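name: query_chain
kind: protein
chains: 1
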Amino acid sequence: MRRRSLQMIYEAGQGHPGGDLSATDVLAALYFGVLRYDPATPNAPGRDRFVMSKGHCTGALYTALAGAGFFPEAELSTYLQPNSRLNGHPNRTYLPGVETNTGPLGHGLPVAVGIAIAEQIDSAGYRTFVLTGDGELQEGSMWEAAMLAGHRKLSNLTAIIDRNRLQQGARTEDTNALEPLADKWRAFGWEVVGVDGHDHARLLAILDAPTTPRERPLCVIAETIKGYGVSYMQDKAGWHHGVPNAEQYAQALAELAGSEDQA
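structure:
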């Protein structure tokens, strides 16, 4: 997944490799071990819902959707090309498997809360998951949604924070500090758990349906590394968006191919 998303960015000449690489393991765990869906009937009423709130990280999202069978993997080569369905931000009008359009940050969690409320009212039995960036939590709409989810005790809702501690241009704590992040979510009525966001086994254990039903929404703070797996990109704000040159691209592919634990 990491190699393919990086190839898409390199060939397209644009993209957001840092966030793609930090979010890949979470997406791999969700699509290949947690979410209940049928790509042949992507709008089946009983499907689990997933909202990619950090909508700029489509390189990682599209590789997951293609791998899950929502569209042919060969279509990944059209990423960001004219008339392609694979836009820079996901569009549900064009692409099966996309629940809602995202891109402007701060919108994904509010939409996911609405979806979870609909399930609560209908007792429909599906679960809702949303992946947010950590810089995105500086948007007030995120905390309004978190407050409502806690009030409604949306036990069918899981919010996953890609906590790579970097946003566009700077560290989150230098821009508008988020810590103590776990305490804030708990204060809003959420159950909170921290996890290594690159540990597949732990992600699967936490994200899959619990044996005992929860009474509150779940916030998973996934500690990740921006640009994970590529040495010169790791923990570098400058790779929030950008395109490697030919030499950098070759180095990145070699490093990713040499790691056995990559998604």
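note: The chain has a mean pLDDT of 95.
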